[in-house]
Amino acid sequence: MKEWDVIAEDFDATRRSPWEECTDFIEGIRGICLDIGCGNGRHLIPASEKCSIAVGLDFSIKMLEMAKRNIMEKGIENVILIGGDARRLPFPDNFFDGILFIASLHNIRRRKERIQSLSEVRRVLKQNSRVIISVWAKWQDRWRRHFLLHPFGGDIYVPWKRGVKVMRFYHLYSMGELKRDVKKAGLRIEKAWSVKKASKKYPDNLFVIAKK
């Protein structure tokens, strides 16, 4: 995960605005919430306005430094930042009233470990609480030709070209695969949809809201 430390400054400069899908989800949370793979904290800031405590977890220490800086600039005091691994969440069972797992699941290399991270989400969620999950879509404009030639794969390396060139691992999902993994972890899917963030023709991001 060293690559995320390398690009943290540039990531922060280009990823400032929270996604509408996430702010809509946050509107329905009260109590304690968790943002897994919180990056520079762009979703922690709106979460802090609705939740009594907003917890941000990330594997990259540099990303957490960006989050800390952004949160301090806003004068926010109810955010806790923790360095940790999505596959082994350092929290007790039935602890969170809501979880965001945005654009992070797809950076875990093996399917077994991706399902393990989703099982961890289920473990730390309170009963009847919800999680919103997003991943990159396999059939998006940018990678569609690649996966038409290699239809049984999903793993790619994506270059970060701003400032310094760094290759980042992604597992791109079809909607069917995402649903299967979420269900395999024991979560109940309430809603699933796809959106275009950068693509013009085919959706490039998939979302699921699931309940324990």
Molecular structure report:
The protein is of the alpha/beta class and 212 residues long. The protein has one domain (2-211): Rossmann fold (3-Layer(aba) Sandwich). Helices cover 33% and strands 29% of the residues. The chain has eight helices and nine strands. A seven-stranded mixed beta sheet has the order 3-2-1-4-5-9-8, sandwiched between helices. Strands 6-7 form a two-stranded antiparallel ribbon. Helix 4 links the parallel strand 1 and strand 2 (53-58). The longest helix has 14 residues, at 61-74.
Secondary structure elements and pairings:
Elements: H1 2-6, H2 8-14, H3 20-26, E1 32-36, H4 44-50, E2 53-58, H5 61-74, E3 79-83, E4 96-102, H6 111-124, E5 125-136, H7 144-149, E6 155-160, E7 166-171, H8 175-184, E8 188-195, E9 205-211
Parallel strand pairs: 1-2, 1-4, 2-3, 4-5
Antiparallel strand pairs: 5-9, 6-7, 8-9
Taken from the alpha-carbon principal axes, the silhouette is globular
Count of separate DSSP helical elements: 8
Mean pLDDT: 93
Number of domains as seen in the coordinates: 1
Order of helices and strands: HHHEHEHEEHEHEEHEE
Task: Write the CATH homologous superfamily.
Answer: Vaccinia Virus protein VP39
Class, according to the CATH hierarchy? Alpha Beta
Percentage of residues assigned to helices? 25-40%
